[in-house]
Amino acid sequence: EPQALEPDWHQWIFVNRSLAMGKTGCSGFDMDYTLAAYKSPAYETLAFEMLLEHLVCIGYPHEILRYTYDPTFPTRGLVFDALYGNLLKVDAHGNVLLGTHGFSSFSEAEVWSFYPSKFIKGDDLQRFHILNTLFSLPVPETYLSACLKDFFSGCSLHQLSCDTGYQHGDLFMSFRSLFQDVTDAMDYVHLSGCLKKTLEDLEKYLEKDIPVLLDKMKEVGKVFLATNSSYNYRDAIMTYLLDAGEAEAAARPWRSYFDLIVVDTRKPHFFVEATVLRQVSMYMGKLCVGTYTSPHQHCAVYSGGRSSDVVCELLGVRGKDILYVSDHIFGDILKSKKLQLEATCLVVPELSRELGIWAREKERMEMLKRLDAHLADLYQHTDGSGYGLQLINSTEREIQRVSRELDLCYSVTGSLFWCGFRQTLFSSQLMRYADLYTATCLSFLYHPLSSLYRAAWELMPHETAVEQERAGLVPTFSFFSCSQRLSLGTFFEDE
Q: Which domain holds residue 263?
């Protein structure tokens, strides 16, 4: 029997809220990891190696250079606890689903010992840090944090002190200061070393296939680019992505693909604060002195400003007419949705791999569903006897075992979207703030730009009960739940 072909998930667009593309008169794009798709794990490996080198330069032991980047360990969306140095996977409400220290996973008892009630407070932003963007290098940052804790834990010269750091003679290094060093190194590498190395070998680190998409978008509306990077870096990247050769570049520079280009946006501040709008001299690659006050010039490049002023006023569109496409769940999608009322599309490069694993491991997920239903039935009918409690404990242990097996199919820290059958914080933010989501912005090439992306209609728990009653289904217990789509709290919402 011929084997069914696996779907090409790069062509799929998934819908949280219905969106009529024909009514969006303007499309906006971030660049890094959206239009410019960096090759993984080559780009993350480069960043990780440069992070290690920088830490050694500022005084960290030379021995840490023995670590090599392992793409199977880190997952986006983890939370770093700066007090205890732990990496946590949490759900939308702050419930701890998984914990690691270095490369060691926590047992259930260890989670409870660190976090009473298996819960953390999302408003303690000095202690808990979400690692969920792409271009700020959180995946190498996450892995490096684990490497450093692994190194110091196994180093005879350093002793763990009070669960909050390491002691070496008269010197104490807290996990908070260690994380700050990693964060500072990440900023340094991102702004200096990594960008320079990327420009030296663009073919090694960048995918290249977007001119057709931008032309298609411009046929039905206006297109703008809004990025945090400087003009010089942006010019080099976009020239590589959009200019096929010198002859074509002379006839059509990359700027002609956009109606508006804004660099140095400082997102998420771009959606909140009004900064000085300045024009960029394309010949000098520097900012022109003074605030720009004239009408919009086609192919001109601007710096700063505020999204509602720059995009809406210069392009003559309304906020609700804009579809903004980005990979950054917090800096772009969340703030854009909350403050500007724009339609949003989140690019999730990990989606294709996650879907492939999900399809292959469907039986494990079905087993979890059966075990969960069985557990609910046991709780409903147990008489409180010792035998009944034994069955409950046995079923809960089996759920934990199967959940962990499923997690390990994705990585050591599990799926970006799930921990067992519980959704992660990243999942809840995606479903709440992204109207659409996809593995790549190129997926729009496979759908008419007049498409109506329609979200599935979901019943609430009390409505589900009525539908089951009408269908003649007799439930074994008298409580109902619906998709976790409706269980979206405000944990870490306003980081």
A: 11-37+206-347
Q: At what angle do helices 362-381 and 351-360 cross, to 10 degrees?
A: 70
Identify whether 124 is a catalytic site residue: no
d(CA 169, CA 403) in angstroms, rounded, equals: 42
173 and 129 belong to one structural domain: yes
Do residues 21 and 128 share a domain?
no
pTM of the model: 0.88
Beta-carbon contacts of 245 under 8 Å, excluding residues fewer than 6 positions away, are none
> Is 489 a domain residue?
no
30 catalytic residue (yes or no):
yes
Number of domains composing the chain: 3
State the Cα–Cα distance between residues 174 and 172, nearest whole angstrom.
6
Q: State the amino acid at position 182 in one-letter form.
A: V
The residues that bridge with 260 in the sheet, in sequence order, are: 224
Among candidate residues 8, 32, 123, 150, the one labeled active-site is 32
**Per residue of the chain (495 residues), what is the pLDDT tens digit?**
444 456 788 899 999 999 999 999 999 999 988 999 888 889 889 989 999 999 999 999 999 999 999 988 878 889 999 999 999 999 999 999 999 999 999 998 999 999 999 999 888 889 999 888 665 556 788 899 999 999 988 876 656 566 899 888 788 899 999 999 999 998 888 777 677 788 889 999 988 879 999 999 999 899 999 888 888 888 999 999 987 655 555 568 899 999 999 988 877 677 766 678 888 887 677 888 777 777 777 778 988 877 666 788 888 888 889 999 998 876 666 666 665 667 899 999 999 999 999 999 999 999 999 999 999 999 988 877 788 899 999 999 999 999 999 999 999 899 999 998 889 999 998 998 899 999 999 999 999 999 999 998 888 888 888 877 777 665 545 555 555 444 444 455 544
| Catalytic residue (one of 8, 30, 91, 184) | 30
Is 212 found in the same domain as 164? no
